[in-house]
Structure formats: structure tokens, C-alpha cells
């Protein structure tokens, strides 16, 4: 083979590798849309009939508003604020909406599909808030809060802890391969901040502080929606793996450490099963048994690239038991989280970060960026990361909702809540709807 023929063969392989990258993330992003179909069904089913259409509409609007706002400034925040609150103009250039690569470009097969995957990460983060606040939040206020969460707050956290040069990663060895912290802890604690100011649904608590159970109108719809979220998570998890698009390909975790799709699949399936069984050990409530799949995956997510599968199962089992227990404790504190989002995402997310520190301490760090070294995994880094994620989620959620509440725009009026939030929409969920339900 002549040198010219060798160079042509290398270029052909490079082009094929780039195409493989583009196809992989394209379909991961498409599968992630199922998360939002699942959230929509899950929350509509968990709502009473008179609120169900409004609950679904919130999800549709959050999804729609997240895409242009992530394009305008969300991607820019992720790429350029990895040092903290200091803007990096070099990397920021790649996230500016007027950049040449932020659109069709025959010389760039990576930016569009990476942007798309991260956009769906942002949509997922915002949708987690949606279920917690059903049946009483004003639609416009929810959309604003969702955009702030998904296109601002989440991006900062991801830039700090889900970026190979992020300060949490390079200074403390923070490890969060599939976003226990940067998606789930952030969104769960943002939701907690909002719930404190939003208050409970009418009729949730009695004068003596005891709680009443408010049942949704369709448990089968809720369970089916939860299963769709689990399916969508396979796209989410796949998009958390980086493809080396040089000659030869191969996979790394989000930080550049070696991994395989097989490792992720072993541990994902074990975590789904462990979470369901853990919830079953805690409660016989079918809603929580299916929510346990999310508890399990979120609990195992931070170390999903490194777990021995039986250990992933055990960590997920613990998360599955922790989820409904934590929800019960929050309810005793007077917090009305309609679907358990704070406990499923926030509390289990923190457990996932700490589990990495407990069981993976000392594992070496890897970096895909020249000049940046990642320390070994350690408990201190995981604790600091968990605290940063909790505060980064809770503080803006609490402050913004407090301002909205003082302005009188956060919570729908009592009359609207009693009649049903669907009255604010041009439609009803079911022709045979009974308004008293």
C-alpha cells in the first residue's frame, strides 16, 4: 500500500468514526424524548381528573421553552463557567448562538448532537420539578422556574462537576458519571425550595398537622409513565458516555476515564431491579414500587461506570427503601411533594454521591483534557460535591419562588384549585369528566 493509499484509508476510517458518533448521540437524544412522554403520563395520572390536563400541559411547555433557551444561553453556561463564576471566553466562543458551529456545518459532526443530548438533559432536569408542584402552581410561574432550573442552574452545576476541567472535578476528584448530583440532586433540592413557598394542596393537611392521602385519578397511567421514563433513561445513560471519534473509536465516561457500554448496561439493569425490590421491601404501594426503579438508577448513577453489578443492585436496593421513607419524613414536616420528587431525585441523588465515596474511594481519576489532572475518587470530594449540588439547587429555587410568592404570582387561587386547574385551559381531559373528583 502506497503512502497515499494509507492516508486515504485513514481518512475513510475517520469519516466512518465521526458518522458513528453522530448516529449514536442522535438516537440517544431521540430515546430521551420518551422521558418526557413518561413524565407527562406519570403526572397526569397522579393528578385528580380536574387537574390532569394542566399537569400534562406543564410538561409540554417546559420541554418547548427549554430548547430555545438552552440554545441561546444554556450551552454557553455549560461550556464556559467550569472555573466557577468566571467566564472563559475561549470555550464560551463555542457556545455562542451566533457561532459558526451552532448550526448546520459540514465540517462539524459533533456539536449538534452533543448540544441536542445536553438540551434533553436540561429538559429532564426541569421536568423533575413539574411533578412536585402539580395541582396548585400557576402555569406561567412554573415555566419561568423551569427555564431557570434547566437552562441556568443545572448548567452551572454540570459545568462544575460534569466537565473534565470543572473545579469540583480537578480540585476534589468529584465523580458523578451519570448525574446523581448534577441532574437529580440539583432538581430535587430546587423543587424543595419551591415547595416550601408554594405550600400544600388544599385538603392535604388537617388542622392538627396530620396528612391526608390525595390519590391521582389513574394509577395505571402513572405506572406506565414511570416505565416510559425508565426506557428513556437508557438514552440518557447512553448519552453520558463519550465516544472517542478518532481512528479506532472507543468509549470513556464523562471525565475521559475508560469504560464500555457493557459496564453501563450491567449496572443499569441491576439498579432498576434493586430499586423496585427495595421499594417493595418498604411499601406495597404500586406507585412506589415503580418509582423504585428511578430511586435505584439515581442511587447507582454516580458510579454506574465502575460498580460491580451485585454492588450496584445493593446500592439501588438501599435507594429504593430510602425513597418512600424519605417522602414520609418530608410529609411529616408539612411538605406536600405530590409525586415524591424531592426524595426520589434529591435524597437518592445525595445517597448516590456518598455511595461512590464509600465504595470507590481511591479509584484513580482520568482526564480527557491536556493539562488537567483529576485526583482519585475520595469521600471528601463526594461530600463537598453533594453539599454544592444541594445548595446550588435549593437556594435559587427558594429565593425565586419566595419572590414570586410575595408578588402573588406563584400559587393559583383557592377557587381555581377547587374548580380544577384545567379551567385555565381550552379543553378538558375526558369528555365524561366529573368535576367533583
In brief:
The protein has 437 residues and is mainly alpha-helical. 65% of the residues lie in helices and 1% in strands. It is built from 14 helices and two strands; from the N terminus they run H-H-H-H-H-H-H-H-E-E-H-H-H-H-H-H.
Fraction of residues in helix: 55-70%
Mean pLDDT: 91
Major sheet: arrangement of strands: 1-2
General form: globular
- Total strands: the figure is 2
How many helices? 14
Which blocks of ≥5 consecutive residues have pLDDT under 50? 3-16
Largest sheet: 2 strands, antiparallel
Query: Distance between the terminal alpha carbons, to the nearest Å?
Result: 77 Å
How much beta, percentage-wise?
Answer: under 5%
Q: Secondary-structure element order, as H and E?
A: HHHHHHHHEEHHHHHH
Rg estimate, integer Å:
22 Å
Structural class of the helices, strands and pairings?
Answer: mainly alpha
Textual characterization of the structure:
The protein has 437 residues and is mainly alpha-helical. It contains 14 helices and two strands. Strands 1-2 form a two-stranded antiparallel ribbon. Helix 10 (286-301) packs parallel to helix 12. The radius of gyration is 22 Å and the shape is globular. The model is unreliable at 3-16 (pLDDT under 50).
Task: Write out key terms for the chains shown.
disordered N terminus; 14 helices; 2 strands; single chain; 1% strand; 437 residues; mainly alpha; two-stranded antiparallel sheet
Architecture blueprint of SSEs:
Elements: H1 3-46, H2 52-80, H3 89-92, H4 111-132, H5 139-161, H6 167-172, H7 180-198, H8 219-239, E1 242-243, E2 251-252, H9 261-282, H10 286-301, H11 309-332, H12 341-359, H13 379-406, H14 414-419
Antiparallel strand pairs: 1-2
Helix pairs in contact: 1-2, 1-4, 1-8, 2-4, 2-5, 4-5, 4-7, 5-7, 5-13, 7-12, 7-13, 8-9, 8-10, 9-10, 9-11, 10-11, 10-12, 11-12, 12-13
Amino acid at each position: 500500500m502506497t503512502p497515499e493509499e494509507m492516508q486515504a484509508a485513514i481518512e475513510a476510517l475517520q469519516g466512518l468514526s465521526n458518522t458513528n458518533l453522530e448516529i449514536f448521540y442522535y438516537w440517544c437524544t431521540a430515546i430521551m424524548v420518551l422521558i418526557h412522554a413518561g413524565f407527562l403520563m406519570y403526572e397526569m395520572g397522579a393528578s385528580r381528573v380536574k387537574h390532569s390536563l394542566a399537569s400534562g400541559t406543564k410538561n409540554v411547555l417546559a420541554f418547548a421553552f427549554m430548547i430555545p433557551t438552552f440554545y441561546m444561553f444554556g450551552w454557553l453556561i455549560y461550556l464556559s463557567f467550569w472555573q466557577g463564576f468566571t467566564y472563559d471566553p475561549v470555550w464560551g466562543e463555542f457556545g455562542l448562538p451566533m457561532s459558526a458551529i451552532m448550526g448546520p456545518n459540514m465540517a462539524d459532526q459533533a456539536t449538534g448532537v452533543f448540544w441536542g443530548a445536553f438540551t434533553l438533559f436540561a429538559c429532564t432536569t426541569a421536568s423533575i420539578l413539574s411533578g412536585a408542584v402539580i395541582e396548585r402552581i400557576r402555569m406561567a410561574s412554573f415555566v419561568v422556574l423551569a427555564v431557570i432550573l434547566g437552562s441556568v442552574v443545572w448548567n452551572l452545576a454540570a459545568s462544575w462537576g460534569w466537565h473534565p476541567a470543572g473545579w469540583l472535578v480537578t480540585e476534589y476528584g468529584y465523580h458523578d458519571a451519570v448525574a446523581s448530583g448534577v441532574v437529580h440532586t440539583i432538581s430535587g433540592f430546587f423543587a424543595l425550595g419551591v415547595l416550601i413557598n408554594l405550600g400544600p394542596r388544599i385538603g392535604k393537611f388537617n388542622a392538627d398537622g396530620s396528612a391526608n392521602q390525595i390519590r391521582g385519578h389513574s394509577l395505571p397511567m402513572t405506572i406506565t409513565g414511570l416505565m416510559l421514563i425508565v426506557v428513556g433513561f437508557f438514552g440518557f445513560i447512553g448519552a453520558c458516555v463519550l465516544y472517542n471519534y478518532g481512528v479506532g473509536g472507543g468509549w470513556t465516561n464523562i471525565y475521559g476515564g475508560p469504560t464500555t457500554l457493557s459496564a453501563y448496561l450491567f449496572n443499569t439493569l441491576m439498579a432498576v431491579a434493586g430499586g423496585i425490590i427495595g421499594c417493595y421491601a418498604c411499601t406495597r404501594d404500586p406507585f412506589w414500587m415503580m418509582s423504585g426503579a428511578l430511586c435505584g438508577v439515581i442511587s447507582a448513577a454516580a458510579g454506574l461506570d465502575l460498580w460491580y453489578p451485585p454492588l450496584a443492585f445493593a446500592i439501588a436496593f438501599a435507594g429504593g427503601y430510602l425513597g418512600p421513607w424519605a417522602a414520609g419524613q418530608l410529609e411529616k414536616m408539612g411538605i406536600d411533594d405530590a409525586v415524591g420528587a424531592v426524595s426520589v431525585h434529591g435524597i437518592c441523588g445525595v445517597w448516590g454521591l456518598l455511595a461512590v465515596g464509600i465504595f470507590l474511594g481511591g479509584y484513580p481519576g482520568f482526564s480527557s483534557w491536556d493539562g488537567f489532572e483529576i485526583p482519585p475518587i475520595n469521600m471528601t470530594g463526594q461530600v463537598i460535591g453533594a453539599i454544592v449540588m444541594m445548595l446550588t439547587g435549593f437556594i435559587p429555587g427558594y429565593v425565586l419562588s419566595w419572590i414570586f410568592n410575595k408578588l402573588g404570582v406563584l400559587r393559583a387561587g383557592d377557587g381555581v384549585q377547587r374548580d380544577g386547574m384545567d379551567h385555565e385551559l381550552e379543553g378538558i381531559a375526558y369528555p365524561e369528566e366529573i368535576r367533583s373528583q
